[in-house]
Amino acid sequence: MSLTAAPAPAITRARPPAAPTRRLLGRWRLGDVVVPVFAAIAFAYLLVPVAYTVAFSFNSAGKTNLVWRGFTLDNWKSPCGAPQVCEAFRNSIEVGLLATTIATVLGTLAAIALVRYKFRGRAIANLLIFLPMSTPEVVLGAALLAQFLSLRVQLGFWTVVAAHVMFCISFVVVTVKARVASLDPRLEEAAADLYASPWLAFWKVTFPLLVPGIAAAALLSFSLSFDDFIITNFNSGSFTTFPKFVYVSATRGIPPQANVIGSFMFILALVIVVGVQIVQDGRRRGR
Description:
The chain is built from 12 helices and no strands. It is an all-alpha fold and 287 residues long. It has 2 domains: 75 residues, no CATH class; 159 residues, Orthogonal Bundle (MetI-like fold). Helix 3 crosses helix 11 and helix 7 packs across helix 9. The protein is globular, with a radius of gyration of 29 Å.
C-alpha cells in the first residue's frame, strides 16, 4: 500500500481594512494642512514682538530707535549706555526679588492652611484669594494709592513692594494649593509612625514634595512683579522701574539698550524653561 500525504491547508491572509473613502481622505488631508497653518499663525503672532525687540537691540540708533539704521554690537557691549536704563532695571530686580520672597513665604503658608486645616472662615478665605486676580489692575492701583495717600505714606520703593506682594500672593496660593492637594497624607502619617515630630515630618517629607510647586509659584510671582506697569505707575511716585522706563521712552523710540535688557531676560527665561524640561525628561528616563 502506498501512503499519500494529505494536501496542506491553504494559508489565508487577512485582508487589510478597506481604504477610506475619498471624501474622508480629503477631509483628513484638509485638517492636516489647516491645523499647522493656524498653529504657525498663532506662533508668529506671539513671537513677532519678541523678534522685533531682539532685532532692534542690534540697531545702530541715533536719537530715536524707531527706524532701522544698521547692524551693530555696541548696544550689547554697553547695555547701560542709555541714561537710567540700568538703574530702572536694577530697581525692578530688587522689587521683584523682595516681593517674590515675601509673597512666596506667605502664600505657601496660606496654601497649606487652606488645604490641610479646617477653621472658621475657610470658605470666605478661599473666595477672597481670587479677588486680586479678578480685579482690574487699574482699580487695584487706584485703591492702593488712595490708601497710601490717606495714611500719608511716601510713595517709592516700599509702596511698590507692598503693592506687588498684594497681587503676587494670590498667584502663589493658587499654585501651591494645587501641589498640596495632590500630596498623599499617608506619607506624613508614615513619618509620624516612625516617631517623627510634626515639624520634622513637614521638613523631611512634605516640604521636599512641595519644592516644585513653590519654585513654580516663585518664578510666576517674579515674572508678574518684574513685568507690572499699571499698579507700579500708580504707587511708585518718582521711583522708576524697568516697565515704567520703557513706557516713558516709547514716545521717542525705546533705546536699544532697553531692547538688549529685554532680549537678555527673554533668553534667560527660555534657558531656564528648556533646562527644567531637560532635567525632568532625564528623571523620567531614569525611572
